[in-house]
Structure prediction request, 628 residues.
Amino acid sequence: MATILEAAGLRKRYGSVQAVDGVSLPIEEGTCLGILGPNGAGKTTTIEMMEGILAPDEGTVTFRGEPIGREFRRKVGIQFQTTALPEFITVRETLKLFSSFYPSPRPFDEVVDLCSLSDILDRDNRKLSGGQRQRMLLALAIAPRPEVVFLDEPTTGLDPQARRNFWDLIRGIRAERTTVVLTTHYMDEAQTLCDEVAIMDRGRVLERGNPARLLARHFRGALVRIPRGCVEGDGIPGKLVADHLEIQSENLDRTMRELLAAGVNLEGLSIHKPDLEDLFIELTGSSLRN
Amino acid sequence: MKQFWTMVYARTMEFVRDRGTFFWNLLFPVLLVFGFSFAFSGEGQPLFKVGVLDSSPAALEGPASFLSIEQGRFIVYGPEESRTAVLDRLRRHELDMVLDPADRSYYLNVQGRTASLLRRLAAADPVLRGYLERTVSGAPIRYVDWLVPGVIGMNIMFSCLFGVGFVLVRYRKNGVLKRLKATPVSAAAFVTAQAVSRFLIVILTSVVVFAGTNAFLRFRMEGSWAALLAIASLGIVSMEALGLVFAARLRSEELVNGLMNLATLPMLALSGVFFSLEGSPEILKTVSRALPLTHAIGAARAVMLEGAGLGRIAPDLLFLGLFSAAALALASALFRWE
Prediction:
């Protein structure tokens, strides 16, 4: 598959903080890349440099092999993390306004349909709920019929139902082979939407690849967790993570027998399928949500 | 082009639907005009003003007793003031009498409120009794006739500075500009759309305010409507340009608010909105001449009260044009989306 967008060696410094420290990300056409990381990892700075909104201190961003410029603006759709919409204007008017900026925008009805906006078309931008607002911002991002859509934490602050609905919208856009780049700090979001994830911390990409393959590479089998208080003595293979002992187990049967034989109280035991959050902890030694 | 008019439409709707701001923009100047018209509709001051044409000290000794009447104010003009200019003031009721001791004559405006009083005073004076009486005529200018260009000019100033400048800073602060930066729209197209929208709003409210108050107060209108429209248009453009300079890169609404007050207060005080600067110190007049509002209001008064044609107001229009061009150039050099 062809590389549609490529970031190479991006660096950005704010005062004494090196927000992004050498990020390189090639993105294949038609895929969905999720940039994962805790707050302050440099996700937004990275995505804004890729959007062409922020000039990198070092490094380049190329679109189909060409440095991004004015032409690129016509071909991308962007949803910022925080955006104010013009006040006193309705959803319909805002959508028409933004569509008018582009040479061959998606037909109005199609956008309304894709983003389920038909009920709120005549509502003032100021009177939208969180979920409606995100749908509206997504509509603005896809109205240009873009080749690449950037979504910066699109579901932050939404309730679980609204998040799930939003995921469906993104799947709808993906079905049209639009390339999607999104940032998130929700593991489930990345796991369910993305073909590829890039895990960031302190301005660097720690690991990138297909979520399932990444997990397979770093974890074997399931994770067995036992509260610290239940474990006495040594001889149990595993490592301490926060307040519990964590054991990677390829054969749960055997692990259970070993634990019982060692006289471990299994009262607080839990078995857990490794996910991206575990991978993040594995990579950084700290929890993602902190 | 469609893109451009969609932007103009969106911005205009944003303003019109903000009912509070919209009606205040219309109501405030109307209230001011009616308020002042009411406040100054009474008999006014009991004083009469007499202009004395250039005279030698010896010639002034003749009417000495008349010149010492306490209820009068006497202004002795130097050689730089032409007889025609002084008599024009009499016609416009800025003076009640003009005395020419060298010629042993005096002038009265037959439509003057104090003409008969002054005629009797002259008849009673041992010296003026022997002077020749000449008359001019001209309808009186009420304060409200003089005030209305000032109030509309002031409304244009506030509406343009805050409507263009303040809104742009708010857009920058809350991220609307950043969102637009991510689209193919150019800064020039976006800013022009804002300015055109505001231009249409302001020219329309100015016409409505003028027509609305004129229906009741019947302002004096000696000149051409086209000239007045030209002044209003250039006045609006110059104020918008000034607003854009302030809004070019600031992010703080508080700061831009302060700066705009810094710009509007001197204009409010020194551009002759509510009172004339005639007779004030030269330094104030010099400052006043550097302010765009002075030229807009001055030219509008010349057209409305004195029937000035395009030729006479050309210097004012030129000043407004150059001021706008300079401010726009500065604003576009300073402009930042974020």
